[in-house]
Input
Amino acid sequence: MKRSIALAVFAAAACSSALAGEKGSFADMDTNTNGTLSLAEVRASVPSVTPETFAAADADANGELTRAEYDAWKASKLTEKAANAPTSPKASP
Ligand SMILES: [Ca+2]
Ligand SMILES: [Ca+2]
Output
């Protein structure tokens, strides 16, 4: 009983954050609104990001991600995900 309530609360929370917009968007992560993301800002939203990962995304190595660097990073991460995803078999009746 308690477990199903917890699941319902979790689902509701997941829905409301989806409605509020994309979690971890550039603007959300740029907490000091200086137009770039520091490692600390990125890690506040995505704790799993390592300094190595951040450095790989920081194309000009100035320690901050610009919007362009962030977008490119996100795109490359999406590409990575797509590459790792199993190719879906042809849907046949
Ligand atoms: Ca910032
Ligand atoms: Ca940079």
Notes: The first strand starts at residue 37 and ends at 38. Residues 19-80 form a domain with the Recoverin; domain 1 fold (CATH 1.10.238.10). Helices lie at 2-19, 26-29, 39-45, 51-57, 67-84.
